[in-house]
Amino acid sequence: MVVGKYDYSDRLYYWLYRVKHQDKILVGNDGKNLISYTNVHDLVDLIVHSIDHPMKSKVFNVCSFDASIRDFIEITGNMLNCKPELVSADSNFLEENEIQQWTSLPLWLDGDYHRNDNSRAKAEFNYQFSDINQTAKQLVDFYENDQKWRIPETRPEPISFDKEKELITKIEASKNRGAV
Fold it and tell me: So what CATH class is 2-176?
């Protein structure tokens, strides 16, 4: 998952926008499922380095770090001084309510399936990848200064704000009745 300025998919921005603008955010499985992210600057740097690098038909995973949606929400929330409450829904609840993995809740998969190992690229190029904090800072600065927190245009279209509020209300009502 390549992330950085001008990411037309808005899949990660979907979450950052919610951090900035909502008191409560619906997340799948407590927001803890991991994905490998690639900072676009790391990708470009390694492509440039590989042009003159003596190697024979090697394949590299260019992934900067593994992180969860929860990680991004917490880090960017601290940067923005926003502390939205995360309302967790398990995969059964989401499926029963026709919320699809990856599309209805961008970047959410029911498990840690979308991960890669970058150790070969680190060793071959002696490269220090960006971490989540650097990447989050770049993104927050971009959306704060250049994009002015425009409404995300995630495609395919995720759940609406109204549907998200409806599901959060349903989860909270269930907890208040003692159901888990």
Answer: alpha beta
C-alpha span between 4 and 159 (Å, rounded) = 23
State the DSSP string of 116-150: ---HHHHHHHT-----HHHHHHHHHHIIIIISTTP
37-86: per-residue pLDDT in tens? 999 999 999 999 888 887 766 788 899 999 999 999 999 999 999 999 99
The token duo for 86 is 């995360």
pLDDT for the residue numbered 179: 56
In whole angstroms, what separates CA 166 from the centre of its chain?
23
Quick one: CA torsion of 42, 46, 47, 50, rounded to 10 degrees?
180
Is this structure's pTM higher than 0.90? Answer: yes
Cα separation, 62 vs 90, whole angstroms: 31
- Sequence ranges of the domains in the chain: 2-176
CA gap 169, 72 in Å, rounded:
24
